[in-house]
Amino acid sequence: MQFLPKTIPEIQAEILPVKDSPPELVTFDVGGMKCAGCAKAVERQLMQYSGVISACVNLAVEVATVECQPGTVDAEALAKKLTDNGFPSQSRLGENHREAEAATIERRGQEIRQQIKQLTIALILIILSGLGHVLGTKAPILSNIWFHWGLATLALLLPGRPIIVDGCRSLWRNAPNMNTLVALGAVTAYTASNAALLFPRMGWECFFDEPVMLLGFILLGKTLEQQARRRAASALQALMALQPAKARLVDFKLSSLDLRSQELPLNSTSAVYDPQYIEIPADRVRVGEWLQVLPGEKIPVDGEVCEGKTTIDESMLSGESMPVLKQPGDTVAAGTINKSGAVVMRATRTGKETTVAQMVALVQAAQTRKAPIQNLADTVAGYFVYGVMGISVLTFLFWYFAGTHIWPSVLLGHDMGHGAWGIGHGAMGIGNGALGMGNHLSVTDYQLPIIHYQSPLLLSLKLAIAVLVIACPCALGLATPTAILVGSGIGAERGLLIRGGDVLERVHQLDTVVFDKTGTLTTGNLTLTDYLPIFQNSEWDFNSDINVGNKQEVCPTIDGFSGNKQEVCSTIDGVSGNKQEVCSTIDSKLLQIAAAVERGACHPIAAAILLEAQQQGLPLLAAEDFCTEPGLGVSALVEGRRVFAGNAEWMKEQGVAVATELSESLQGKTAVYVASGGVLLGVIGLKDTLRPDAKAAVERLRGMGLRVMMLTGDTASAAAVTAQQLGLAAADVLAEVRPEGKARAIATLQAQGCKVAVVGDGINDAPALAQADVGIGLHCGTDVAVETAQIVLMRNALMDVVESIELGRATFNKIRQNLFWAFGYNTLGIPVAAGLLLPATGILLSPAAAGAFMAFSSVSVVTNSLFLRRGFRA
């Protein structure tokens, strides 16, 4: 199979630019949000502030992220504006970030404790209310109508008070929410029951049990929902808990810090366990300071081990459960746990620059970015409460003026059937008692079941209240953020950082995955395999005592190469007694020149050549005036001569003639040509090895229905070898593509209708990562690749590409399921509550039953998101 590099047209599709100066991002902790309507109200208020470009509010984690023009927004003033409008807020700016974070956690804890307290009271009231109907005449006090009036009054004054107050305030601020609907329903039911109690001749039914049950079910649902949301956020909280609070600062001059690279037991009496140290906050550590870490302690900042040897548990950062051996010179990351030995480390990255801090920032940012599929839900949520209130009014008007006249039979209700849909509607007994008061009979004198006549006004009022209570804006608001919360948490545990819901949606649409070759599909650890020196017509002096005679006899042109270096360096009888010495000298000289030039480059090829020169003990030649051409090569002045080292295209641009075919020994390898003064000095062959999991990852991706391609700036022959190992077809290999051409290649695929993911690790990959629909960067790669990518893989494993796509697909499917349930529930529930089934089946939802369904809706959405973990168990 012959692989030829694809030709990338100059103009194919629009190449997305990489933003040089991104807008400023400000994050706020926002309290007081009860449903999607509240979140939408907060977004509207934020967007009204001058300088704000966009705002995104996450109901699940109660966080708002504002994108604004740099230097135009006063974060504290914006937070105060939200607070004044009923949403207590605090910006995450300033030095007190950790204190503010702790205060937010404490506030949420207090809210949950208060909610549990209110739920307990509500459940006690529900039990007392139920006992009154179960015991009947056996407990006259519990079945007395005034006792149930007292239970309803207590329900509104105690557990229901915060809901009613917040609902009224929200309505007054023209931002009604779920609490507004519940408050209207509960107060209306209580008021109607009071009217029936005080004016029994109206023939109305008392339903004091409705506000008791309604508030109880709402509080139960909110408590379950809150607990589920905490579980969903557990991974992020665990990640945040990794950030150490303290660090032990030591003096690097102390002799007691010499651990002699030995692991020390926990009960050791060595002086290293009691040095002179100062304990300071971890966020106050400065780069370059020395820190001591004992067994069992967390690494306070990113750094380098200077003394000692230990094993480090890096599972939370990378997902790898096995501890990793660390010794002097190795790097360690903040938040990882020192398992076995005491070490002294030098800080290299502190504060927000540490790996764990960046992970936390990435996950937090991901949880505030919505999927575009959520836009419809957000639009609906903005008008949802107003719409429900309008439907409730229309329901009342229809049944009062038309429905009861069209279907008069609906006014005759059988309590047993009604009770089945009224959550054991014991309130019927109360209603009968109310009617009995007009007949001077006790409430307990009525035996169920009985048939009674309902007032058109009362029936219409019940249906209107049920509409108010059954509608659930929370389900709409929680559909996307809870799924993203769980998905990003799972990813963080496994070292997969997905930057937001918009990325998840694009992951779900992918049909093509393009891998960079060097450093991604391969290890990137190149090794030298061949030296093909030429030095034809060159003025270079070998600086050797060996008389090489005629260089043209020793090293003929590359066209004459047969593939064996020993044949290239032919017999030179009379010139030197040892042709191996001559060839070795030529090799060394070529390597010296190449190493001098590559010293100015930062590339795996340069690293391999420099390492080989170092291992051979060759002194580096003096070089200066380095110039690098990405994707081509590097040049420098070496001993006063301009030398070029790079690929064949680079040589052609410099006017250096290159043979059309390489020797067999360089087929399938990376060739580095070295030239000076228009003359080819020689060629160096290098070989890279495939990653152990590369083939398995490619096969898994294909099994998922994705097309897998390889993109490389390497030669077609080198790409062919790698492609054959992976089982890639010629059409799926793009070789000899320069860095600027990589983005153009991705744009070409996109112009053909492909949804493309690019996997890369280097600076050369950044344009392609930015151009792709989804950029996947390896964390072991360069910072620019990681910053450009939408998915960051913390582990050095290609199988994580597969897992990240699987996680993205699964999370997006949960989002769609949640939105389907949220819309479906409200679409079906509201008409049923409005009496759609009443004429044909006699089914009438009581306000309490409607409240129970509403509570179930929110809990079901969050619980469905939690089920995502079932498919990604460790």
Layout of strands and helices, then pairs:
Blueprint: E1 24-30, H1 36-47, E2 52-58, E3 63-68, H2 75-84, E4 89-91, H3 97-135, H4 145-157, H5 161-172, H6 178-198, H7 209-232, H8 234-241, E5 246-250, E6 277-281, E7 290-293, E8 302-307, E9 310-313, H9 315-318, E10 324-326, E11 331-332, E12 337-338, E13 343-349, H10 355-368, H11 375-406, E14 412-414, H12 415-421, H13 427-438, E15 451-453, H14 456-470, H15 473-493, E16 496-498, H16 501-509, E17 512-516, H17 517-521, E18 527-533, H18 551-554, H19 565-568, H20 579-598, H21 604-615, E19 623-629, E20 633-638, E21 641-646, H22 648-653, E22 670-676, E23 679-687, H23 694-703, E24 707-711, H24 716-726, E25 733-734, H25 739-751, E26 756-760, H26 766-771, E27 774-778, H27 783-788, E28 791-793, H28 799-833, H29 838-841, H30 847-866
Describe this structure in words.
Strands 16-28-27-26-17-24-25 form a 7-stranded mixed sheet, with helices on both faces. A 6-stranded antiparallel sheet has the order 6-5-7-13-8-11, with no helix packed on it. Strands 18-23-22-21-20-19 form a 6-stranded antiparallel sheet. α24 links the parallel β24 (707-711) and β25. It has 30 helices and 28 strands. Helix content is 47%, strand content 16%. It is α+β, with helices and mostly antiparallel strands. 49% of the residues are buried. The chain is elongated. α14 (456-470) packs parallel to α30 (847-866), α20 packs across α21 (604-615) and α23 (694-703) runs parallel beside α28.
